[in-house]
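Thread: magnesium ion complex, take 2
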Amino acid sequence: MQYDMTDFSKVLVSENDIGRKLDEMADAIRRDYEGQDLLLVGVLKGAVMVMADLARRMPPQVQMDWMAVSSYGSGTKSSGVVRILKDLDADLTGRHVLIVEDIIDSGVTLSWLLGNLRARGAASVEVAALLRKPKAAVVDVPVKYIGFDIPNDFVVGYGLDYAENYRTLPFVAILDPKVYEG
Ligand code: 5GP
Ligand code: MG
Ligand code: MG
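Output below.
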């Protein structure tokens, strides 16, 4: 596949980097949950690629479920009020749950999600995220498995979009500001 690379100011994480990191994360997850029932919960739509590639590295008893949420807020600021657009199919009672996320920025959505899922009687709820921005490192959102700490730039690719575009890229890139500044 050919891409117009002039849309990006930099490729931040290559396809190979992602693959190697997911190998490491999956090794740790398989070790930690060995002999336990595990449910991966993906947050649509951004986590689709991470979920697919992480789940492929799991034993066949590991299950997947999906949620879609939207954060209420004015403009670009997240208010912390989150609405469920699509809820899980699974009953979490007594289950070990691992939330699979694409990127954590303010951590607002994730901290709401953690509270919500923990209230459903899960045996445990942890988080795996491919990317984390600097803001997230200072808020109190415990992320057990983290791929890459990245700078505070707007990135696209590997599930992450700008206006629903760029999700299909196999790598993560910094979007050149000319694309959204017109
Ligand atoms: P938080 O609640 O942690 O501030 O927001 C997390 C969500 O914001 C992510 O799931 C993602 O949808 C979006 N987001 C945060 N940073 C970026 C970014 O650099 N690029 C893209 N495409 N989305 C981002
Ligand atoms: Mg997300
Ligand atoms: Mg988006």
